[in-house]
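Box 3.1 A note on notation
Throughout this textbook, protein chains are presented in two layers. The first layer is the amino acid sequence; the second is a token string describing backbone geometry. Keep the layers aligned when reading.
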Amino acid sequence: MSTTLRRFGLIGKPLQHSLSPFIHERIMDAAGIKGEYKLYELGEGDLARELPKLLNELDGFNCTIPHKLQVRSFLKGLDSSAQLYGAVNTVYRGVGYNTDGFGFQSSCVPLRGKRVCLIGAGGVARVLAVEAARAGAREIVIRARRPERALELASLLAGLGFSQVKCLDFQARESGDVLLNGTPVGMWPDVGGLPVPAEELAGAAAVFDTIYNPTATRLVLKAKSKGLWARGGLKMLFAQAVAAQRIWHPELDFGLLQGELARIEQELAWEVLKRSPLKLVLSGFMGAGKTHVGGLLAQRLGIPFVDLDEAVARRAQLSIAEIFSQLGEEGFRQLERECLEAELSSSGPLVLAAGGGAVVQGGAAQLIHDRGGLIIYLDVSLETALARCASGEGRPLLQKGREAAAALYAQRRPLYKAAADLWVDGNEQAAVVVDAILAAFELEV
């Protein structure tokens, strides 16, 4: 291990949620580097005063918004990567680099010969477009809110010899084989956002979202539920950080650290979850296993668990059967909605097992998404559901017999699917279902 302390950091603003110190300090520790990594929150007006000092004091640093462009004028040169993408995210010995392209390449998105639909035309979208062109995409469709940015990006691609580009309005309903999201839509805490309507996934084969918080956005979860190749931006984030460390420490062979780096990347996924209190709402028919699975999932994640039916019973100080008997289903639904809203309004992360009809009531899914929740549907066969609820005890809606239960199941199943962000096979054992959910969020199982 080196005995001389090396100093690194990140400049930008705001930085309060940055994961960079967590990532870089662990990489350096694994590589035997005695180093520190600090955050330097600088506004646009601070750059001229502070950057010359940091260039002199630090062994290297990263740049994020709003400085990825402005920093170039303070440097003595630009690496070809920074020239290609027109922005700097890493500085070493006064030279600017950009490691985002390497990070995206590490995600192994299938691009060759594909029609690529790119959402957005900002800085990260620029990286995605250039890499898609270099990887041999057949055509790139750019959909952006600001047409002039899309045209600028098309001009850049033309300068690289890639002319198969179409620029469309953000609202245009034109997709491709591969969908790339280069916008912040769906980022925590506004996890309910979708950059494109879910129906557009019908014609896609692969989806990549640059957002890494949450580790799987609604877009990624919906794509995985349809059986598509889908990945969030966590690997890109980590790989670009490793690339920066390679630049700062050219004497080291990071190839010898693959095992340690894989472990740190997995720790990073859990750190994202820890810092971003998601609310995971389990939905599904009676007998889907929501309470059992929810309890196990919350235990694995180390976060609280709430059974919505139990919350309703506590509020009414009656059993579910008594509520139905005294207030009817309408009265029960009103209490259920009140309890759902209360639990979603609580601070901190949560796994919530919703009642069989909670999520399919009008406006419930929108409420969950608006309050920072994601919906996980445990899909079970009618036979499995009825076998698990054989006694019918405590389940008023099963008292009308099998035929009525089958009709209710047929009515609700498409509603569960429409509301869900992630579909999981609930016929499996609870531990297997929990593993599938964790894997969807790129958490080690």
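The CA atoms of residues 296 and 358 lie 21 Å apart. Residues 320-345 form the longest helix (26 residues).
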